[in-house]
Amino acid sequence: MPLERVCYDCGSRTTTPVARCDCGEPLWLATDPSALSTFDWDAVTDAPGMWRYAPLLPVDGVPADDAGLLHAAGGTPLLRTPALDDFAGARVHVKVEGEHPTGSFKDRGSALGVAAVAAGHAGDVSAVGTVSHGNMAMSTAAFAAAADLPCLVLVPADVPEARLEVVAQFDPTVRRVAGDYGRLYERTLDVGPDHGVAFLNSDVPLRTAGQKTTTLEICEAFATGADTASSATASTPASAPDAIVFPVSSGGHASAAWKALRELRESGVLDAADVPSLYLVQAAACAPIAEAFEADAEDVTPVEEDETIAYSIANPDPPSGKRALAAARDTGGAVLAVDDDAIRTAQRELATEAGLSVEAASAVALAGLQELTTRGTVDASDDVAVVATGTGLKEATGATVEAPTVDLADVDDELAAFGDAK
Amino acid sequence: MPLERVCYDCGSRTTTPVARCDCGEPLWLATDPSALSTFDWDAVTDAPGMWRYAPLLPVDGVPADDAGLLHAAGGTPLLRTPALDDFAGARVHVKVEGEHPTGSFKDRGSALGVAAVAAGHAGDVSAVGTVSHGNMAMSTAAFAAAADLPCLVLVPADVPEARLEVVAQFDPTVRRVAGDYGRLYERTLDVGPDHGVAFLNSDVPLRTAGQKTTTLEICEAFATGADTASSATASTPASAPDAIVFPVSSGGHASAAWKALRELRESGVLDAADVPSLYLVQAAACAPIAEAFEADAEDVTPVEEDETIAYSIANPDPPSGKRALAAARDTGGAVLAVDDDAIRTAQRELATEAGLSVEAASAVALAGLQELTTRGTVDASDDVAVVATGTGLKEATGATVEAPTVDLADVDDELAAFGDAK
């Protein structure tokens, strides 16, 4: 079955398995209109993880029971965490995307992409690839290994070897590429299929189709009262959060969120008034989408990248930048930037108050929410889902270790001192 | 409500919040007999994660909707992974415990322990502590932070600072202790409560009560057909796997599995004939329980510890060693040891065939299963749940990185070469 692709911008459609519209903008996979017209939360299946939304995904139902890793994508917790409310200035619900096999939301898109390739839905391809040096590389390699598909990972020439070790464990083919990263990213989309390789880059139709499910899960939790801790009363749970805050890099995840919300609106599951605002947050050191938003620009101008602790979202020339701008504007949201000090503070707050270890690139979402409430853009009574895109387990925490040595003979005294001080 | 504790060995009961029986053996928390008599899979709630089994847990129902991190414990995937069957010699189902907030099964016991302390069920204590330098330290610190309980982490004097950083991010009090680790472990259980600190060490009643849920989830998946990939037909799903394989260190998790199976048998949910055999696997470099099992000994003799890549299960003097022996014997299982080469091979197999990154200490379970099928102890037609206790994301993978550099101008040739070779 050839999957139809649609352009959010000019409305063109095609069944050719390309990532870009003739107008130059990134494509989405179209969703089956009959599935959309009959969709509501009661129609959701009890399949594992993200596959409960199979009717809205470009796959032939749920992967087989013995599909292994595919069943581990999605189904992450949404945690109501009042301990963060004061810091954030709103009612915080954290979506813990780190609880994935490779520790990030990337597993949703990798699962969808690999399942589609294996089922022959992605054109004449029999292998996958990706241009990435972080979470996406690891995720793509893992899901390819589980599906027994060859996998090619292309990384920038200067990536530290330690960051490649986590990718190499799944045994993909890895190449460092010397040259412009953005051009490499687009080139692989152009020529990959000629060589039988579906490149599951950050904002391609297959990946964003899988990443819709982050937002579907958040909205379902509110709508069905699985998250009954929302400010609405339990008997009439809110049908959606007031806002969802994402870190933004390529714009792929943000555009997937927008697509999900459009589908929920189109199916009648969400009224127009209930559609959550999408807020997208960048690191100030590399914030081309935020700068375009502030400047009321229609498109994003590439920037020079500075160093940031949120390196995994530092994309100076985001391929779905214009689409991310449209997502924020269409939903009444915004794109903003936060500096490394704010990111570090939010990361620490997540760990010490909510017990959540997230990577710096994920902490930008909470830092962004704080900025939004400070500005008065988001209210204290708003229920806000903060998407913690990736675990902090993969990187050094930078936490200061204060651990003086005591003798076993003195441990009773130490316990007494701790007991008195607590 | 004082929680009753019961000794598996001599049968004594007590409501004093102690970890050890007067006979010296570790205690379990008793489960409410009326809950047991009415329990079956239909009675399970739809609460998040491990709390669906609240009737069998020593808590007053499910934690409040705004309890944050507590809701993220449990509910991990059980993946039917045929790609591992040839290697293992049986039908493999992997329980992916790495999909927890801090990346290991320890979060189940930490969640239960912290919830019980916060609810006043653990005696006159208002803080938690633990003796650990790895997964358990991180897990306890995270759940304590989320519950706003003071936390004291005691580690051996020679632990590398890098391993403490992941603990320090949650801001517990950390002390290195010079002296015998086993004595420190027991001493904290003895005197912790005197100073208002509940030590959630590896095999204490509160922690093992939470860890029962690993086994409950595995059995429920088989019984209800949530894992319909078992060898029984879909219309009559197997009521339990034939065997469950755990890594074993202190013996706490193993004893929790045994307790869960005893409860399922007592409640009539499992017939005696359907109780899975518990196989417990150690690293050969430090295998006191396996040695005792081989020697038909009733109790475990401490050993000298050698180096092993599975360092996080290298316990030369396991406090629940005798209880683990009883668990294996009572269920018709066994305790065995595998060497580092076998562990490394199993770890690589999990990554390259199933896409699962696990720590070396978790890979021992798959290595052990291979040994059991080689011996003929487990059959090729057996459905076996292999418990992958912790993620591999926290440690260096040791994978060899082969990533030659190519020029962007040559990337088309590289794609062609990859396409031809695949």
Automatic annotation (TrEMBL), chains A, B:
It comes from the Archaea. The keyword Lyase applies. This is Pyridoxal-phosphate dependent enzyme. One of its GO terms (molecular function) is lyase activity. The keyword Lyase applies. Residues 71-390 form the Tryptophan synthase beta chain-like PALP domain. Keywords: Lyase, Pyridoxal phosphate. Pfam families: PALP (PF00291). InterPro entries: Ser/Thr_Dehydratase, TrpB-like_PALP, TrpB-like_PALP_sf. SUPFAM superfamilies: Tryptophan synthase beta subunit-like PLP-dependent enzymes (SSF53686). Its cofactor is pyridoxal 5'-phosphate. Coiled coil: none annotated.
